[in-house]
Amino acid sequence: xxxxxxxxxxxxxxxxxxxxxxxxxxxxxxxxxxxxxxxxxxxxxxxxxxxxxxxxxxxxxxxxxxxxxxxxxxxxxxxxxxxxxxxxxxxxxxxxxxxxxxxxxxxxxxxxxxxxxxxxxxxxxxxxxxxxxxxxxxxxxxxxxxxxxxxxxxxxxxxxxxxxxxxxxxxxxxxxxxxxxxxxxxxxxxxxxxxxxxxxxxxxxxxxxxxxxxxxxxxxxxxxxxxx
Length: 228
Description:
Elements: E1 8-12, H1 16-28, E2 32-36, H2 39-49, E3 53-57, H3 65-75, E4 80-85, H4 90-98, E5 103-106, H5 111-125, E6 133-135, E7 138-141, E8 146-149, E9 152-153, H6 158-169, E10 174-175, H7 177-185, H8 195-207, E11 215-218, E12 222-225
Parallel strand pairs: 1-2, 1-3, 3-4, 4-5
Antiparallel strand pairs: 6-7, 7-8, 8-9, 10-12, 11-12
Helix pairs in contact: 2-3, 6-7, 6-8
Pfam family, one: Trans_reg_C
InterPro entries: CheY-like_superfamily (IPR011006), OmpR/PhoB-type_DNA-bd (IPR001867), Sig_transdc_resp-reg_C-effctor (IPR016032), Sig_transdc_resp-reg_receiver (IPR001789), WalR-like (IPR039420), WH-like_DNA-bd_sf (IPR036388)
Domain OmpR/PhoB-type: 130-227
């Protein structure tokens, strides 16, 4: 990312070692970080701190992450919420999304993936905090809804823009078709998942990626963006 000045992250978890790990990593990335070990403390910290992003553990005693998410969405302006859950269950994911959560990660998770998701939320909800950001040969400018590849502006439809941005921001990570559908088309999308293949094919054409060196297909798994 180009600059993180003034970007505030609230992390909430009842496990001290996870709080310490996240605080260390996020501070090193340049974020301003506050932490809380339970839901009630999180709401108190949020009132004074006014975070841009909250990273919430779901399974906490007394006040769980779902309740914290619901309260934050009611009291904070335009806060992005990323849920951390130990269970990869669709019901938990859907419940969190219906309460206003913007994303979720299943424990144990890779810190780089969490960082990519935080960056994606900032780009979507707080584009004025960030300038144009470079990732390898790509430059993303959300303010202009524009992506350049090797300094060439790509002519993209709104859906192609969101899909390519998702792949670039999560470069090096494998994204399943289901995850892509959730993030680009919405979790309630009722169409066929082969629509992802159609849009990936279109992006490859526009990127002149005939040999699939940028957008790789992992058969039976999903897609991965590989940057030089």
